[in-house]
Design a protein that fits this description.
It contains nine helices and three strands. It is mainly alpha-helical. It has a three-stranded antiparallel sheet with strand order 1-3-2.
């Protein structure tokens, strides 16, 4: 997408950006835009003319009484991000949950599988020694939580990638 001097001029006014956002929802007549923004019709017409010259909007004469303005693909690309925020958040949250769940699962399995015994952990960490041997018995029951977190993270990552591919 080429951004020229006319495009920069057209996007330099906040009112024109507002008009593009309105037209991104659906096509409108100049009077409707004027009413929605609370501006004089002549002001809106001048803004639309500037944006039309920049190729951001097109004038669509339907052959009836009204002349509609529509946003072009160039106009849409100027106000719509390439990758929607919801996809970025979904992927970030999914990766974070998967990493956290995987780390917790790995830590629990390392602690209770035999590579590190509960006894050796209690000897190295004096604050844990008062927990007694009940910690070893309770550990396997809580091992499902990191797996659920890991699974939820992976589901979010897959969902995010599916949404990204459809975009």
């Amino acid at each position: 997408m080429e951004i020229d001097k006319q495009t920069i001029k057209a996007l330099s006014a906040e009112t024109r950006v507002s008009i593009l956002k309105i037209l991104n929802v659906n096509r409108r007549i100049a009077a409707g835009i004027s009413k929605e923004l609370g501006l004089a019709p002549s002001t809106v017409n001048e803004h639309l003319k500037t944006m039309k010259n920049a190729g951001l909007v097109i004038k669509n004469d339907t052959g009836h009484k009204w002349i509609y303005y529509e946003i072009t693909e160039k106009g849409k690309s100027m106000i719509t991000p390439k990758m929607p925020v919801n996809i970025i958040l979904t992927l970030s949250l999914g990766i974070g949950l998967a990493m956290f769940g995987g780390a917790e699962f790995f830590a629990e399995n390392m602690l209770y599988s035999g590579s590190m015994s509960v006894q050796s952990v209690m000897e190295k960490a004096p604050g844990i020694s008062d927990m007694g041997t009940n910690a070893a018995a309770a550990a396997p029951a809580a091992s499902w939580l990191p797996l659920v977190i890991l699974g939820a993270g992976l589901v979010l990552v897959v969902y995010g990638f599916i949404k990204l591919r459809r975009k």
